[in-house]
Amino acid sequence: MPYMHAMIVIQFKNFKVVDYVNNYYSREAYGVCYGHKVASINGMDMWLVTEFDEIQPPKYKKGPGRPKKLKRRELDENPNKTRLRRDPTPYKCSRCQATCHNMRRCPLPPPVVPEEETEELLKV
Ligand SMILES: [Zn+2]
């Protein structure tokens, strides 16, 4: 199929875009490719029985590296509650109790400390 800019030029010159499309994309080519019959396979009850042992899965081999510390849980399994979550924990301002900011960004004026207490703090 011609790319978009070529299609615009073909239409601008009043030619048919279909004339510039490869035969590979035609319905006839699709029928030739997928039109043949697919043979079905016999069921397990019709398979030949051999004298050899059944094929077993390979033995477990311990891989390199340190084993994973956390268990990979199934979707329906209870999540590990001791593991920290990725979503942020809700925070609130300890001064005005609002949840949109913390104490550092609080719009309220800072609390006024009495002069006696500040003098005591400076002495120490
Ligand atoms: Zn606040």
Textual characterization of the structure:
The chain contains three helices and no strands. The chain is an all-alpha fold and 124 residues long. Among the domains are: 31 residues, no CATH class; 36 residues, no CATH class. The radius of gyration is 37 Å and the shape is flat.
Which helices and strands, and how do they pair?
Elements: H1 4-12, H2 27-34, H3 115-123
The structure holds zinc ion (ZN).
The Rg value, from CA coordinates, equals 37 Å
Number of helices: 3
Ligands, ions, cofactors: zinc ion
Order of helix and strand elements from N to C terminus: HHH
Could you tell me the number of beta strands? Answer: 0
Mean pLDDT equals: 84
Distance between the termini: 84 Å
Question: Which sheet architecture does the biggest sheet show?
Answer: none
**What is the SS-derived class?**
mainly alpha
**What portion of the residues fall into strands of 2 or more residues?**
under 5%
Q: Low-confidence parts, pLDDT < 50 over ≥5 residues?
A: none
Global geometry: flat
Proportion of helical residues: 10-25%
